[in-house]
Write a structure and sequence with these properties.
Elements lengths: L1 E2 L35 H6 L39 H11 L12 E10 L19 E9 L14 E9 L2 E8 L12 H8 L15 H9 L4 H7 L14 E2 L4 E4 L5 E10 L8 H10 L3 H11 L5 E10 L25 E10 L4 H6 L12 E2 L4 H17 L18 E2 L63 H9 L2 H16 L4 H14 L1 H11 L11 H4 L28 E5 L6 H13 L3 E6 L4 E3 L5 E3 L2 E2 L10 E4 L11 H12 L4 E4 L3 H6 L11 E4 L7 H13 L6
Parallel strand pairs: 13-14, 13-18, 14-17, 18-19, 19-20
Antiparallel strand pairs: 1-12, 2-3, 2-10, 3-4, 4-5, 6-8, 7-8, 7-11, 8-9, 9-10, 15-16
Helix pairs in contact: 3-4, 4-12, 5-10, 11-13, 12-13
Function: Decomposes hydrogen peroxide into water and oxygen; serves to protect cells from the toxic effects of hydrogen peroxide.
Keywords: Heme, Hydrogen peroxide, Iron, Metal-binding, Oxidoreductase, Peroxidase
Cofactor: heme
Amino acid sequence: MSINPGPPDQRPHAPLVTETPNPGPPTARTRDTEDAKDAKDAALDAFRAPDPDGPLTTDQGVRVDDTDNSLTVGDRGPTLLEDFHVREKLTHFDHERIPERVVHARGAGAYGYFEPYASLAEFTCADFLQEAGTRTPVFVRFSTVQGPRGSADTVRDVRGFATKFYTRHGNYDLVGNNMPVFFIQDAAKFPDFVHAVKPEPPNEIPTGASAHDTFWDFCSLQPESTHMLMWVMSDRAIPRSLRMMQGFGVHTFRLVDRDGRGTFVKFHWRPLLGVCSQVWDEAQLTAGRDPDFHRRDLWDAIAAGDFPEYELGVQLVPEQDEFAFPFDLLDPTKLIPEELVPVHPVGRMVLDRNPQNFFAETEQVAFHTANVVPGIDFTNDPLLQGRNFSYLDTQLIRLGGPNFAQLPVNRPLADVRTNHRDGYGQQVVHPGTSYAPNSVGGGCPATMGGGRLAEGVFEHHQERVDGAAVRRRSPSFADHYSQAALFWRSMAGWEQQHITEAFAFELGKVGDREVRRRMVGNLAHVDPGLAADVALRIGEPEPGAPPEDRAVASGAGDAAGVAFSPALSLENLRGSGIRTRKVAVLAAPGVDGDQVRAAHERLGEEGATVETLAAHGGEVPARDGGGVPVDLPLPTTASVLHDAVVVPDGGEHTLPADPDAVRFLAEAMRHGKPVALLGSGVELSRAAGFGTPAGLAGVAVHGSGGRDDTAFWAEFARLIGHHRFPSR
């Protein structure tokens, strides 16, 4: 067995500190200083190509005289096969693409760090959770599930939230989603689910969407999907930003302390900016205006130093309480209501560095639920057990062989010593023997079993397992509706309306009437009113009363554990402040320049990004004779790319006559976004069909201008912080 010597220009491998003391607030980091580098950033330096300096060469280092013309017989003759440079150039181009992921193909990634608030040694021996303030490098990849790499960001879909921790004892991957449950209970159904949700085989339609027959046929025949469907039909499936959505580990995992004692755990990520979503019409318009909306938003925020931050929370359940709930902890279609087990914040993650090459890093990063470290272990969740096989199997074909862990973004910071050899993509020259035990090749490091384990050694958690080999679902997994009903009852009125409309939109696109009726029948178990409303909207008969079950008959108090859970509603998850919110100021000739400047200054002080929009670029003449700089021409942007709108005084003869301005404000009003109308700015509201909206939720009106009115701008900032006013 030999030690992986690392990249050729770094032999012997320089010692790297995986976890470093807290160097200060993230805003103090600068990409150009050595002090700013964490251990993973420093390790990647060995693989970063230098700026081009010198002549072009082939892959063999041979200098090239001409890269624009093929070697031919005469000026117009055939190309010669001996032109090794052009053949190499074309061959490399032909093979630049790798197969995209079967699911989660479209993604965006970022580097950062995680640091715990306090030691978790009471529950786990995981090294990166032992000491408060110890920083561990991370790479996070966000993604959609259904669509290919070329689909839009804002489609209705689950979002992946996968985090790779580069710990001192190896890589740990927390591979989750922005929803805490899943469609199926057993991994044996995963190929069926994915085949159903993907575009239909005859025509490869639809792309990046689930509104089609095969998906709803599958779900209508799989009642276990009902709870997840409630989440996917909610606004959780159309997040405002990757920086403003929660993440969940989905499964119940196990923390293990140094004495081998286990504690069940559910992982939660909470964005410090709050949890915010789009509305359906807005999401569709955004896909047309900017299909890269989420990617761009994440990249721009990090580039501007507005580093996304998430708090890691855990729900801890002692092993002796495994059966203390009216649902099964191993069922991935169930969550633990926070009213039964609170979420304890244990640390924070800051994303402070964009990748330098999308393909090399975001595309080639490989996550795997079985990538665990000492102190974190699995449970017998049948979906998790299957994922522990499937992820590795997928990466073998997608990344071309067994050596994908040697790619820079996947390479651990911990030392690697294996007997693995050869295969596609092998980057290490291994001397000596490759078997154990051996006595002729210089010896081989022994495994670390036999007695008390040394620090950093993984040992599987021990538990008694016995029983007959059967293909049978546990009876404790049989309740498919109680938590779906809990989710429905916990929603605000506007959220219930959006869920109803989403079901109607999706099922309205299903051509098979039997599928529609069957799905409406399933919804009757969740809430008869929901089922009746959806049936009416899609032209199906109202379902009869379902057979009595716990979800409907008892308010789910006995089956879900609680009757209501406020933590499930977006109404209760808004953040505080307006940092990174985008505010549009609509300007036209004659605009009050003081008000435009006040919007930039007052809202900018609160952390918002304020942009002045006008019919054209350059400047617009202000009322005082000066000019107001224009950040973006109106025809190049849209209200769906902004969070709030300010219409200052002046321009009352121009703005209402500009169809782009009228449409901009009308869409913002229709989508419930905060709007400020100052002075004659109400004329644009009238032109957009909203009259003088005094008293309308989320609209701040200031008849006298308000350029120096501190209270007005403070109130408008409060409205922006509320994010959305669906009642409008």
